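Need tokens for this chain, all 361 residues.
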Amino acid sequence: MLKVLHITSSYMPKKIAGDLNYSQTTNDDEGEYSGARVGGLSSSIESFCENLSMFEHHILLSQGQRFQYGEWCGRINVEERDGLFIHYFPNSGDITNCKDVHYTFQGLLEKEYGDFNFDVIITHVVQPNMDLSNINKKCKWINFTHGSPTNNDLSDEYMDLIDTNLLYTEWQKTRLKDNSKSVVIPFPVDTNIFYPRNNEPSNDFVWHGRISPEKRIIDFAVKFEDEIDSELNIIGGPDSRAWMDDIVHSDLDKVKFLGRQFDETLAEILSSHNFYVLMSEYETYCIALVEALASGCSVYAIYHPSLGWAKDVVNFVETMDDLFEAIKSPEVSNSVLWVEKNYSWNVLRKAYCELLSIDKP
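Here are the structure tokens for all 361 residues:
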């Protein structure tokens, strides 16, 4: 069985992170919005491991962004959980108190993981200023570009090291100066979890994602309260709880904040709604959108070039005002079969197996 090491940040669902106190911000560590982040990156890694179970998956969780900038203290613990091997720093205190201790990427690969003999390394998060000097690469190396890359995100040094730069959309290519190692494979949705579960979904609206300013969900919620005769359910948690408090606890009768939801519960909520809305300033691929389509939702969204892959099945508009005009009289549609034929693991598993040099699924 081939061994794969996923190097990522601490954005992981509780299924992987367990009871570890891993949170991107210090403001979001208690109360109804607590818990590990659910979002594109976290669900991608979890889904990847579960649907490519022919690998032995090892996941390195860093504490916030500190791993990326080279802070390290003590050996990393390894714990097996549900068939996955979770690698993590002992606790947040060990990291917080050792800002003067540094190591190179080479040190991590050789000192910490020299005995594991990994066949594939997948980097899910890379910062431009990571020290990549003098790395003696011993296995296949794939970079997953989950976010919106810019010309400066991937250095020449890093591009020389990796074997493949995986992109989810053709649009991502337009953001890179070097596409010599780029391969475009959409990230699949798990249709064993996300499918139409409810025979009588409501005509209310739902949104799912990371609550942050660029998503514009808070602005949308305030306007929704005044203009739409329906209910809006918001699934997700904030980057920083401080700026959320006023809006979450304000008097919005039509808007409900459901907090972070996972797996089956998330799928149940999505499929109980006819309509999903998306109003972000930008997206990259938006796995949450694919999950909504797979769950049977009709999607109304503000267009961004990165979402061109969904132009045949999403009701796109240009502005926020256009979006509100459209959802005043929404129409029910169903793109479940389209998702199954184009974006499910059943269709895309072979491409990922070939990417990681597996002959057969």
